[in-house]
């Protein structure tokens, strides 16, 4: 549930920041211009949050608020910038279409396949990154370090 709340917070913060930037031009612009004005800052804030802030602080704004960290496998360290850029692009291109892919697979699959096998579990990340709770990451690092 923390991950979903973190995504909701990230989306909310991105849209509010974008809306505040274009608020002065809304009265004079038409609908296509407003969409374009919102899309540019939204993508910029999304990149800053998901790539730059994650590279610096270990998580985006929503994940930091919810106590989640993004780690790379297998060493549980900070992911590199190229992993984060690829993850951000994957999120922009693939994840909004996830319900369509799930519905298409469910309708095309035999009825003996459970829905959980069709729908993404949310834990699979093609870049080899994972999201973990801050306390679990600290416990893992203490266990790896051994007794003091």
Describe the fold and architecture:
With 148 residues, the chain is mostly helical. It is built from seven helices and two strands, in the order H-H-H-E-H-H-H-E-H. It has helices at residues 2-22, 31-57, 61-66, 81-93, 98-108, 115-118, 134-145, and strands at 68-72, 129-133. A two-stranded antiparallel sheet has the order 1-2. Helix 1 (2-22) crosses helix 2 and helix 2 (31-57) runs antiparallel to helix 4 (81-93). The longest helix has 27 residues, at 31-57. 16% of the residues are buried. The model has no long low-confidence stretch (mean pLDDT 80).
How is the topology of this model organized?
Blueprint: H1 2-22, H2 31-57, H3 61-66, E1 68-72, H4 81-93, H5 98-108, H6 115-118, E2 129-133, H7 134-145
Antiparallel strand pairs: 1-2
Using brief descriptors, characterize the structure shown.
148 residues, mainly alpha, two-stranded antiparallel ribbon, 7 helices
Report the β-strand fraction as a percent range. 5-15%
| Main sheet strand line-up | 1-2
Q: Characterize the largest beta sheet: strand count, sense, and whether it forms a barrel.
A: 2 strands, antiparallel
Shape: globular
Q: Give a count of the beta strands, DSSP E runs of length 2 or more.
A: 2
Distance linking N and C termini:
35 Å
Question: Low-confidence parts lasting 5 or more residues at pLDDT below 50?
Answer: none
Which structural category fits the helices and strands? Answer: mainly alpha
Rg value: 19 Å
| H/E element order | HHHEHHHEH
| Multimer state | single chain
Q: How many helical stretches?
A: 7
Query: What is the average per-residue confidence, as pLDDT, rounded to a whole number?
Result: 80
- The percentage helix is 55-70%
């Amino acid at each position: 549930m923390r991950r979903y709340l973190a995504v909701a917070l990230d989306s909310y913060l991105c849209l509010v920041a974008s809306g505040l930037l274009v608020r002065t031009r809304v009265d004079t612009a038409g609908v296509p211009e407003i969409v374009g004005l919102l899309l540019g800052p939204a993508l910029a804030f999304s990149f800053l949050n998901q790539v730059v802030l994650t590279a610096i602080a270990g998580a985006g704004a929503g994940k930091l608020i919810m106590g989640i960290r993004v780690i790379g496998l297998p060493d549980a360290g900070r992911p590199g910038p190229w992993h984060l850029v690829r993850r951000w692009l994957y999120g922009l291109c693939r994840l909004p279409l996830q319900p369509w892919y799930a519905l298409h697979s469910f309708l095309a699959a035999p009825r003996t396949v459970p829905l959980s096998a069709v729908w993404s579990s949310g834990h699979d990340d093609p870049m080899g990154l994972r999201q973990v709770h801050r306390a679990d990451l600290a416990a893992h690092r203490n266990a790896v370090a051994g007794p003091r």
